[in-house]
Write a structure and sequence with these properties.
Elements lengths: L17 H11 L4 H8 L3 H9 L6 H11 L3 H25 L2 H4 L4 H6 L9 H12 L4 H8 L10 H5 L1 H16 L8 H12 L6 H13 L3 E5 L10 E7 L2 E6 L6 H17 L6 E3 L6 H14 L5 H5 L4 H11 L3 H12 L20
Parallel strand pairs: 1-3
Antiparallel strand pairs: 2-3, 2-4
Helix pairs in contact: 1-3, 4-5, 12-13, 14-15, 14-18, 17-18
């Protein structure tokens, strides 16, 4: 069911000080500034500053004005609050206008299509929506979170060349992950959960995904799936959201079951074995020790490498299916291992199931 579009009210680029209303009230009472000063106990200079909006109407002053003018103190307090709020909005807008260039790096059109941010024409409001999506108050704060070198240490080249789109995909995962109620992270329980999850590869996604998510949540790991984005050729990512909660972020890039399961166990390897300070991104490359270890972990837990010599000489589908049954695995995963070992990417493709997002025919 589509969500209702948020209506944005017109925002004036000026603010009217409550002192203007005070002057109108004085005129209606035929009261001069000196008389008002005497009646309220305020100085003429203080009233001048209130008229100009330079001095706020305090709660004490509002009470005095109620006694003198008959206008309730709450109205003066509301006028003052509205004035200060509008001044803050004007100031914020000027700051945001200076950062509009950053907005060009963020895939706002795609985020709107995914109903992640509101569709608005005003670029400044759109920028504000983007900042709200990231949970930051400024572009400077975004840069501190997403472009800080220490955080970027484990990122792929894609992040460096397209940080806006890359960070948007990860952020969507974070938002979903925060909504998953997890127990505190328990390494031993997570290891045991992985054994149970491995047995689910023969099931359909509609059956194994809810079970996999729950098993991991019970061990302190939030598993989320976010549809792949253009210019972000990744299969998965791992990020610790807190000392006791990790996120495994996956998509269906490539759509084949062997790639999906390899990606999941690859990210699980990062959770088990690597630092909680880094963001780990699986872009299909293993050009550093950390990524290679995660690859080795995924490969070994799915199909022990001792089976590789046997798999490499397979000639029939029956051989693939027979080993899959012995290993309690989906035949598609064994077929994927054969293809990687031999480079024969077309052979046994019929055994590999294709996963797709619900509601699509892709």
């Amino acid at each position: 069911m589509p969500t209702a579009k948020k209506q944005y009210e017109f925002e004036p680029d000026y603010a009217i000080a409550p002192g203007e209303t005070l002057k109108e009230t004085m005129e209606s009472l035929n009261m001069g500034q000196k008389e008002l000063a005497v009646r309220t106990g305020l100085t003429v200079q203080s009233l001048d500053r209130i008229f100009k909006g330079e001095q706020p109407i305090s709660y004490e002053t509002a009470n005095k004005l109620e006694l003198v003018t008959g206008v309730p103190a709450r109205m003066w307090n509301n006028l003052e609050a509205q004035y200060r709020e509008q001044l803050a909005k004007i100031k914020e807008r000027k700051h945001l206008e200076a950062d509009l260039e950053w907005l060009k790096t963020i895939p706002t059109k795609e985020l709107v299509q995914r109903m992640v941010i509101e569709p608005v024409k005003d670029k400044v409001i759109l920028l504000r929506e983007a900042l709200k999506f990231y949970g930051v108050s400024s572009v400077k704060a975004w840069e501190a979170l997403w472009m800080e070198p220490a955080v970027a240490a484990r990122r792929s080249q894609c992040f460096e060349t397209c940080p806006g789109t890359a960070s948007a995909w990860i952020r969507m995962g974070e938002i979903q992950a925060h909504q998953i109620n997890c127990q505190p992270y328990d390494k031993n329980r997570f290891k045991k959960a992985l054994v149970d999850i491995r047995m689910m590869t023969v099931k359909d996604p509609g059956d194994f995904i809810p079970a996999m998510v729950q098993l991991c949540a019970d061990t302190g790991v939030a598993v989320v799936l976010v549809r792949e984005m253009k210019k972000v050729p990744w299969h998965g990512a791992t990020k610790w959201l807190a000392a006791s909660k990790a996120m495994i972020l996956l998509n269906l890039r490539g759509k084949s079951e062997d790639q999906f399961w390899f990606s999941f166990f690859h990210e699980a390897g990062h959770v088990l074995n690597d630092s909680k300070k880094d963001v780990y991104i699986n872009d299909g490359k293993s050009d550093n020790t950390c990524e290679q270890k995660a690859n080795d972990f995924a490969a070994e837990i799915l199909i022990p490498q001792s089976n590789n010599p046997e798999i490499a000489v397979f000639r029939t589908k029956a051989q693939v299916i027979d080993l899959a049954n012995k290993l309690n695995l989906s035949p598609g995963i064994v077929a994927g291992r054969y293809q990687r070992l031999t480079g024969k990417w077309d052979l046994f493709n019929g055994l590999k199931r294709k996963f797709q997002w619900a509601g699509t025919s892709e």
